[in-house]
Amino acid sequence: MQKQPLTELLNELEQELVRLGYTEGSMKFYRRRWRMLLQFAQEKGEIYFSERLGIEFVETHFHILEKDFERTLLQRETQELRLSDDWDFQLYHTVYAGIINT
After folding, report:
1. Cα radius of gyration (the chain)
2. Which backbone phi and psi does 5 adopt, to 5 degrees?
3. Helix (H, G, I), strand (E, B) or coil at 48
4. Angstrom distance (rounded) from CA 21 to CA 23
5. CA 42, 80, 51 angle in degrees (round to 5)?
6. How many CB atoms lie within 10 A of CB 96?
7. Three-class secondary structure of residue 72 per DSSP
8. What is the residue extent of each domain of the chain?
9. CA angle, 69 then 23 then 18, to 5°
10. How high is the pLDDT of residue 38?
11. What is the pLDDT of residue 51?
């Protein structure tokens, strides 16, 4: 798998979500999270998205620990983990519309 810089990956992901008909409200949510993720990555000196970066981001910003991924999450927690879409998109260039751990 050839990695793309995070900014390019998020731009392509945004285009795909718009193509899939995500609402403007959903897009605003994602864009806020992506800005937070970009800032976090910059602070870490990371250019590329990785599963580890995503986990560290979720742990730092939302206090959902990696060990918590094994339990049934609250709806609010599941929403925050939608950032896993970034990882799936990077790997497969597709967006999974399922729900994590429900």
Report:
1. 13
2. -55, 145
3. strand
4. 6
5. 50
6. 13
7. coil
8. 6-92
9. 90
10. 94
11. 81
In tens digits, the chain (102 residues) has pLDDT values of 567 899 998 998 899 889 989 899 989 988 998 999 999 999 999 999 888 888 898 889 877 766 666 666 666 656 666 655 555 555 555 554 433 332
The reported pLDDT for the residue numbered 97 is 45
Contact status, residue 38 vs residue 6, Cβ threshold 8 Å = yes
Q: Measured between alpha carbons, how far is 14 from 67 in angstroms, rounded to an integer?
A: 29
Type and span of the H or E element at 7: helix 6-19
Beta bridge partners of 5: 48
Instruction: List % helix, strand, coil for the chain (3-state, nearest 5).
Output: 70, 0, 30
CB 33 within 8 Å of CB 83: yes
Yes or no: say if 78 and 100 are a contact pair by the CB < 8 Å rule.
yes
Question: Can you give the pTM of this predicted structure?
Answer: 0.71
Q: What is d(CA 24, CA 22) in angstroms, rounded to the nearest whole number? A: 7
